[in-house]
Design brief:
Elements lengths: L2 H4 L6 E4 L8 E3 L9 E4 L12 H6 L4 E4 L10 E4 L3 H12 L8 E6 L4 H14 L4 E5 L2 E4 L2 E3 L8 H13 L4 E5 L2 H5 L8 E6 L15 H9 L5 E7 L5 H5 L5 E6 L6 E11 L2 E10 L3 E5 L4 H16 L4 H10 L7 E2 L7 E5 L4 H12 L6 E5 L7 H14 L2 E4 L9 H12 L5 E4 L3 H10 L6 E5 L6 E4 L2 E4 L2 H11 L6
Parallel strand pairs: 2-3, 3-4, 4-5, 6-10, 6-11, 7-10, 11-12, 12-13, 13-14, 18-22, 19-20, 19-22, 20-21
Antiparallel strand pairs: 1-5, 7-8, 8-9, 14-15, 15-16, 17-18, 23-24
Helix pairs in contact: 3-5, 4-9, 4-10, 11-12, 12-13
Length: 490
């Protein structure tokens, strides 16, 4: 299409050349530039695309999109925008034929619960006959297709590409996690979400290259509700007013508060052979008793968010009940059934806040013991190691300290830091640096009533060591261990 068509929803100034140029694609990596691409100069924390204009031109591009003045190369079309990140989003939408118009688009934001809530929605709505795509932390799911991603919310170009693929595959609905960074960096610019969901908010992502303070973090989260038609909010969260005060959408609420549009009561923690979850009664927009196949009170919150949306999109009580009962989220308190004597769960908890939340949640189930296997990543803050050691020592009955993406550090140095935090408690622990051997130890030494938590890897299927990623899917590892030790327990 013509450059003019790509720019049809943007205000721009032509600095050189003209907008009649034919463009087949839009790129923001100069290495991907060709004679039929427009190169968009994005400014990031680590690099500035304006510094790579010469490289893009050498690779053949004839169209450059900038947001500040540059030295222009003769024979090249230059277009100036106020914000090239916003420009990329709108140009990508035009390039792919505005696919969001063919989909119901749902965005979920919050510190915790985004991934689980997306999969609950998918499980319920597919039971109601819908075709649901997902974009989020674990990756992109559409039909039988899976695409691994590196960001919770991909770059705007990739989002529009996924939207187009989903629409062409017959998806009715796309549910996407919307991170605060994505909102800050305009990755979702131009998308009018049909529904926005707020799960909860607590301090996170504050620091260099993320958010300068909590106020900015809150503000960025709230931006979703200025670009959606309908908002669904956790009424019990202390920051709900921050999310709704400037919202332009209508407001629906869920929670345990008596004023919630969907209210939960009588939460029960259930531990059954092969099942650990919650049961509760719902009142308001739906009257029903439901069971959720994931543990903890936070699972009730995630389920309520999913139910509010699912009801809006036509799911009945049967679809809700069945969807929540069978939902499974890779690496989010994910059960791996190997015995009726004890439970084994895989979870992504990889910092002190998430580990404390997980351990206190599991404590509510009154297990015989909580066995917490975890490590910490290399080339990351030592403070995280101290904190995780202290949290596990405080809340677990036995900590099994092991490896987790040691990167360019020695595993034993990382473990030594973890033990500093552990020493502040009287918690029992063992050190087994080899993660497979550590998992094997947990299984072979399990006692009746134990809940064993394999923390840190979650959905990851690799171990990063000295710059290389080695295959390490804990589900596969568990199968290997069971075969090696001739495990025959039912």
């Amino acid at each position: 299409m013509t450059l003019e068509k790509l720019l049809e929803k943007l205000e721009y100034a032509v600095l050189a050349g003209n907008v009649n140029a034919e463009v087949d694609d839009v790129v923001y990596d100069s290495r991907k530039a060709t004679d039929k691409t427009a190169f968009v100069c994005l400014t990031g924390a680590q690099a500035d695309g304006h510094d790579y204009i010469e490289s893009a031109v050498k690779n053949g591009t004839k169209v450059i999109i900038v947001e500040h003045d540059v030295d222009m190369i003769p024979g090249i079309t230059y277009v100036k925008l106020k914000d090239t990140r916003i420009g990329l989003a709108y140009m990508a939408a035009a390039l792919f034929g505005y696919p969001q118009n063919e989909l119901t688009v749902v965005g979920i934001t919050g510190t915790k619960g985004k991934t689980t809530t997306t999969f609950m929605i998918k499980s319920i709505l597919e039971g109601a006959g819908k075709n649901v795509g997902i974009i989020g932390t674990i990756g992109v799911f559409m039909g039988d297709k899976y695409i691994q991603t590196h960001n919770t919310t991909p770059e705007s170009y990739d989002i529009q590409s996924y939207f187009r693929q989903m629409a062409d595959m017959g998806c009715d609905i796309v549910v996407m996690e919307v991170s605060s960074q994505a909102l800050k960096l305009n990755r979702t610019a131009g998308i009018e979400f049909d529904y926005g969901i707020f799960t909860n908010l607590s301090p996170d992502h504050i620091g260099e290259n993320e958010h300068k303070d909590m106020a900015e973090y809150i503000h960025c989260k709230s931006l979703l509700f200025k670009q959606c038609r309908h908002g669904i909010f956790n009424i019990d969260d202390e920051h709900v007013e921050d999310m709704t005060k400037d919202a332009t959408c209508d407001v629906e609420t869920y929670g345990f508060d008596k004023d919630a549009d969907l209210r939960a009561e009588n939460v029960k923690y259930l531990v059954l052979p092969g099942f650990i979850g919650v049961e509760f009664d719902l009142h308001g927009v739906i009257e029903e008793n439901v069971r959720v196949n994931t543990p903890g009170k936070f699972s009730a919150y995630n389920a309520m968010a999913a139910i509010c949306l699912a009801k809006r999109l036509g799911a009945d009580e049967k679809a809700v009940a069945e969807g929540l009962l069978k939902v499974a989220v890779r690496g989010r308190v994910e059960p791996v059934k190997i015995s009726d004597r004890f439970h084994l769960l895989i979870d992504y908890a990889h910092n002190a806040m998430s580990l404390e939340s997980l351990l206190t949640t599991i404590r509510d189930y009154e297990p015989g013991r909580i066995v917490c296997l975890f490590g910490c990543g290399g080339n990351r803050s030592k403070l995280r190691r101290y904190e995780m050691g202290e949290i596990s020592g405080k809340y677990a009955d036995l900590s099994v300290i092991t490896a987790d993406n040691s990167r360019f550090e020695d595993v034993m140095d990382i473990i030594a830091d973890i033990k500093v935090g552990m020493s502040k408690t009287d918690g029992e622990y063992v050190v087994i640096p080899d993660r497979k051997e550590a998992i094997k130890y947990c299984i072979e030494n399990a006692k009746d009533g134990d809940i064993i938590l394999l923390c840190g890897k979650g959905h990851e299927d690799y171990q990063e060591i000295n710059g290389e990623r080695h295959p390490f899917d804990e589900r596969v590892i568990i199968k290997e261990i069971l075969k090696e030790i001739n495990w025959n327990e039912q």
